[in-house]
Structures are given as structure tokens and as C-alpha cells.
Amino acid sequence: MKRKNLISITEFARLRGVTTETLRHYDRIGLLKPAYIDPKTGMRYYSLAFEDEKLGTIIELKQLDMSLGEINNFLHERSLNKSYVTLKKKQAELKAKIENMKLLYNVLDQRILKIEQAILHDYDFDRIYLKHINKRRIIISELGYTDEYDLNRAAIIIERKLDETAPILGGERFILVFPYENIIRDNIKNECRIGIVMGKDNNSIYENFRIESGLYVCTYRFGSPFDIKVSLQSIKEFCFKKKLRICGNLIAVLTVDMSVTDIPEENVYELQVPVIKQI
Length: 279
Description:
Elements: E1 6-8, H1 9-16, H2 20-28, E2 36-37, E3 44-47, H3 51-63, H4 68-75, H5 80-119, E4 129-133, E5 136-140, H6 148-160, E6 174-178, H7 180-184, E7 193-197, E8 209-211, E9 214-222, H8 229-242, E10 244-246, E11 250-256, E12 268-277
Antiparallel strand pairs: 1-3, 2-3, 4-9, 5-7, 5-8, 6-7, 6-11, 9-12, 10-12, 11-12
């Protein structure tokens, strides 16, 4: 075969902005065969009329995150109907990825805001306040833990059960639940259960705990969420003045935690205690 109107693999690679090894790989897997191979030198040559069009299509389809196998199938016996079906399927996949990336972006945006607040000490740690919190569905550990090592192991097991986009670096999804009985009796122990708040559209079979909606007395704190005795006393004094009665477990929502800092004193958490008004 004559090499008229053909260019060498080196020229073709330079023209298209790919490496010669990429073109050799495409040849080996049957994705893009050269127009001619010199039997003496083994040099590959390509046609600007045919191989260039196919390589351009490969490059475009790779931008759609199609695998080489998918691209090979797309290029084999092309037709309008076949191309339409393949591209519509890929469009649906990209739409789902875009929606997921939007969700991740919004979660990350909120995380950065919380970290900025912690850096600037923009939390009012002296303030105790009331707020209404909606019902939360939880995947929670079956046992209570007092050791942070065991608590972290339990968190990993729970997170693996979460069949949705995982929290980015905590994301105010991790909570610690301290028993109501210990709060009422002033018997504050470090024992607690750890859980992850599920998304509103998550219907995981692993859901095993619910925190009902209602009125909560809340306050932000720095440091370890296990050191809550002083904070709880302040909350109880607040409840006494406001004629409120504690009616459930104490919840510690991890706002800034070990996922973004190795310094325990930089951890930020919100204590939430459910209350009802006394008659």
C-alpha cells in the first residue's frame, strides 16, 4: 500500500495532542487501527480522511466519561439509531452525576462555612437557646461506648451501611446519644451511642432509631463532647428558669470534628436536649 496522503504515527500524535503510546494501545485493542503499517520498519501511518475522524470521536466520547470498551462498541457498525440510544443513556448517567456533584458542592460549602466559624471563634459558646428541630431518622450503634477507639470503629461500620452520598468530612451528620436516665440522675458517664442522620429520601433497611421533632435547648461547645457535665448543668439551670422539663436523650451533633482537625480543643459540637413546657 502506498503511503500517499498518510502521515506517520509521530505526526498524527502531535497533530491530535495525544501520545504515540496511546495510538499504539488503541491499535492493540482494536479501537483505532492505522491505515498502513510498513512491513519493514513497523511504522504506523494514518489517514486524515478516516482515522482522524475516528480519533476525534474517541477523544470526544472520552470527555463523556465513556470507557474504551463503550467507545469501541459505539464505533462498531455505527447507525443513527444505535448512536441515539447510546448517547441518550450516557446523557442520563451524566445528569445523575451532575445532580450528585451539586449535592456534594452544597455539602462542602456548608462544611467550609462551619470551619470558618470555628477558626474565627464565631460561635456564641456562652449562649443557651431554644429551637425547634424536625424529626430525624438514624442509623445508630446497638451498643454504648466509653472508649473513643471503639466509638470510631462503630462509626465506620455504620457509615458502610449508609446507602447514599456519605457525609463529607463529618458534615453534621454524626451524632452521639447520651441516655436520658443518666442526664436526669446527674450520673453523667462517657457512655454513648454513635449514629448517622439519614437523608430525607433514604429508605435504608438499616434505620433503627428515630429522634422525634420538638423543642430543644441547645448550646455550642468546644473540645470533647464527652466533657458535658458543666454544660449540662447550665442547660438544667436554663430549663429551671424557663419552666422547661427535659424529656429525652441528650444529643451531641458533631459540627467540627476529628475529620478536619487533630487538635481535640478545636472540635465543635452542638448539645441538644429535648424539652417540654411545664404546666
